[in-house]
User: Fold this.
Amino acid sequence: MSQSLPELAPIEELFDPTSKAYSENPGPQCLAIAERGPLVWYAPWQAWIMTQMPDIMDCWKREYLSSDFYDWEFAPPRPTEENWNNFEKALVGHSLLADPVHHRLVRRITAPAFSRNVVENIQRRLEPHVKKLFDEIGEPESFDYIEEVARHIPFISITAMIGVPEKYWPAMKRVTMTFTETWNPTISEERRLRAQDDSNKAIDILQEVIAERRNHPVEGDFLSALLKIEAENEKFNEWDIITLILALIGAGADTTLVAQQWSVYALLKNPDQIKPALESADAFSNAFSEIMRWSGNSKMGFARYVPEDMSLLGQELRKGQMVLMMPHLKDHDPKYYDNPEKLDVRRVFEPDVLFGYGPRFCIGAALAKRQLYLTLSELFKRFPNLSLAEEPEKSLEDHNSVVFKKLTLNTNCG
Assistant:
C-alpha cells in the first residue's frame, strides 16, 4: 500500500509578517515560505510570492510582469488622459514604472545627473543642514533618533538636492511623509487620494522651481543637469523631470526612515563594525547592504502585476493578480551566506540586489547611500560613546517593514 504524503500546514501559519514572532526573528518564517515552492499563493495579501532568486533575477531582467499599479485587479479605474490631475499626468502619463521602453531611455540619458560629481555636490549641499540638525539636538543625556534625526532626513535631502526655496518647505515636508501612500495597495482609497493631493501641491512647487532654474542654471547642480539633458533630448521633457523627482521622493521617504533607524541599531549592537562601515562613502555603500540583510526588516518586497492569464513556475496566474518578488527571503539562509546571523560590513554581495537589479535597479541608490553615510558619520562624530538606552520595541503597524516605535540613544557625553 502506498503511503500518503503528510498534509502541509497552511502557509499563513508558517509565514505572517504582521506577527510579533516575525518582527523578533523573521529568518525561520522566510525560510519556511521559500521552501514551500518557487511561487506561493498568500491569501492574506491576495498575491503570489516569488521566492527564489534565479526566478526573481529573470523577472527583473525580462520584465514580463507589469510594474503598472493600474494593472492590479484591485486598483481603482485608470484615469483617462483628459481628466488627469498633475499627479496622474506624472505617474500615469510619464511613469518610470509603467513603460519599460521609456524607462530605459530615461535611465540612459539621465545617467550624468547621477554622476559621482553631482552626488558629491549634493553631499556638500546636505552637509550644513545635517550639521544644523545635530546642533539643534545639542548634547542631551539621551534622545530619540527617529524623532530628532531620521524623520527629518528625507525632507532635508530632497530640498537640498533640488534647491527648493524655504517658503515651500512645509508643503514639501508633507509630501515626503505621504508620497508612498499614493499607490499603496493596503490603505483606503480616501487616504490614497489625500496623499495624491499632497503630491499635486508639490508638483506645483516643482514647476516653479524648474522655471527659476531654467533662467538661472547652476554648474554641477542636480536639477540643472536634468534641464541640460532635457534641452539635448526631445524625448525627455519637464514632466519626465517631475516624475523622476517624485520617484526619488518615494524612494527616499519611507525607505530612508527605515534605513536610518536600522543602520544606527545594527552598528550599536555591533560596535566593532562602526569604524569599517564608516571608513569611506564607498565602504559604507557595501556596509549598508549588509546592515539591511542582517536586520531582516523587509515584509512585502517588489510588487508586479500579471498582464494576461499565464502559466508561471508551475502555477496558473490570472490577469491582474499581484506577484511579490521577495529577494529578502534568502537573507538569513545559510545556503546563501556564511554565518548569516553575523553582521560583517565587509561581506561581499554578488550581485547586490538591495536596490533591485537590471533595468529596474533604483536610479537613486547612490544618493540614498550618500545621505545615510553623511548622517551616520556626523552622528558618531558628535557622540563617539553613543549607546542604546534600551532595547527598542518594534512596531507591527508598518505594512512594508519592521520598524521601531522609538530608538532612544544615550550620548554618554559626560
Observations:
- The first helix runs from residue 11 to 14.
- The longest strand covers residues 39-42.
